[in-house]
Amino acid sequence: MKNIWILLTKYNDVFLFILFFGISLFLVITQNDFQRTTSLNSSNSVIGKIYQQASQVTNYLQLTDANKALLEENNKLRQELDQYLLADTSTLQLVRDTAGEVRYSYLPARVINNSIRQKNNYITLSRGANDGIRKGMGVISPQGIVGIVLNVSDHFSTVQSLLHSDTRISAELVESQAFGSLVWGDEYDSRRAVLRDIPNHVEVKKGEKIVTSGYSLFPPGIQVGEVVGTSDGGGESFLDITVALSTEFHKLQYVYVVIDHFNTEKQLLEAEGSMDD
Amino acid sequence: MIKVLLHNILRFMVLVGMQVFLFKNMGYYNLITPYPYILFLLLLPIGISNPTLYIIAFLTGLTVDAFHDTLGVHAAACVTLAWMRIIFLRITLEAENHDALTTPRLGMVSFRWFLPYILLTTLFHHLTLYLLATFTFRQFHYTLFSTIFSCIFTVLIILLFSLLTYRRRTRK
Fold first, then answer.
1. pLDDT at A88
2. Residue B163: pLDDT band by 50, 70, 90 thresholds?
3. Minimum Cα–Cα distance from A10: chain B residue
4. Fewer CB atoms near the end CB (10 Å): N or C, chain B?
5. DSSP character for A185?
């Protein structure tokens, strides 16, 4: 016993190293489960507050860009509105959406922390559970999709950015309507992503638009980006399509959180279907 | 004693603050990022006991992790750095000759000792960091590239900090 004690004190640096390194490694490996249960991430209220203070300064510097983006979006919405206002309704019958309810609503939020240089990137928003944000909601910007809500505290929420190795979003090609899953890919470039699982026979044109398919959290038809090039994936029957993203992640300032009112209902129904199999 | 404590707390806040708000966003795409906050761990008093050093390193790592949303990665890297620091100090210094509260900063120690000290510890810190962040040996050349160039970047910034806060040794 005494000898063990002497050994432990003599080489205490090694043993302490193993102990602490073990704890850290444990945290890393169980990271995904832990991030849900612990509050040690940037949706934590203390760290959220600190980031919010810092973003007020940087926000001020980017006001011009933010104004310009808002103007552009306003302009686009105004044009869409004109199409409805100027449509000759006298010959058309008014058709009501029989679902009767609005499926999606949008909640604007300010980005208070953002990263694009890590291998797994996260975004912190200045809104949280008190404003109605829940885990798993989609996040979009005026230019395109941004990510998925990962953690929520009362006043803040963290978003798993599209620039994250675990993010998968269902997207489709506009012309052929073939759908696949959009992942960030191995290039670690904040302007590029990869659309996987598109069957080989689909004709893909350069510059073709890619939008969300509506099968996942996002409403259908939200802009994602356009095709830059294609290559055969690892397998033989699927294509890997390189996508130029329309969202400018390095300039992200204001985003919309997508609230899907029928999401629970849809998931319950789909779960029922898979149980029958 | 109190002065040393205050100095270290101040150093912690300044370095971690700069890391989180400034250096995190700096770098060449996502390949090279400097992490000069480790200077705080390197400048802890020479006579600090091993358990205390490990605990401080672990907590510093966790703090930085919380801001980077990478739970455990920086903590593991900082713990590795602490071990390297202990080994390096044991090999190069004879403990009796040094005041336990001495800060191993430039001006107190010679440049010829300081440079290998930060080079070695930074290298091990960054290697652990990038290996855990990618969590694979598959793209090892990529990891190695990031490690080496980030290491150079970090060391340059640490040297810059050291020169900016350079003071000649005040006592014998």
1. 56
2. confident
3. B50
4. C
5. -
Pairwise CB contact (< 8 Å): B72 & A26: yes
Instruction: Inform me whether the pLDDT recorded for A203 exceeds 60.
Output: yes
Q: Model pTM?
A: 0.64
A16 or B103: which carries more pLDDT confidence? A16
Q: For B107-120, how does the pLDDT look when each residue is reduced to its tens digit (9 = 90+)?
A: 778 888 889 999 99
- Give residue A75's domain range: 45-84+99-160+253-261
* Shared-domain flag, residues A208 and A145: no
Question: Number of CB pairs < 8 Å for A and B?
Answer: 97
A91 is a domain residue: no
Q: How far apart are CA A173 and CA B102, in angstroms?
A: 65
Give the Cα separation of B38 and B19 in Å (integer).
Answer: 9
Residue in B58, B62, B133 closest to A119 by CB:
B133
Please name which of B67, B65, B77 lies closest in space to residue B122, comparing C-alpha atoms.
B77
Predicted local distance difference test score (pLDDT) of residue B35: 92
Q: How many residues does chain B have?
A: 172
Conformational region of residue B35, where left means phi above 0, alpha means psi within -120 to 50, and beta covers everything else: beta
Shortest CB distance from A27 goes to which of B75, B87, B133?
B75
Please give the DSSP secondary-structure letter assigned to residue A200: T
Domain containing residue A175: CATH number: 2.40.10.350
Q: How far apart are CA B41 and CA B37, in angstroms?
A: 8
Q: How many domains does chain A have?
A: 3
pLDDT at A95 over 60: no
Please report whether residue A65 resides in a domain.
yes
Asked if the interface predicted TM-score (ipTM) of this complex is over 0.90, the answer is no
Number of domains in chain B: 1
Residue A179 sits in the same domain as residue A70: no
Q: CA-nearest residue of chain A to B17? A: A50
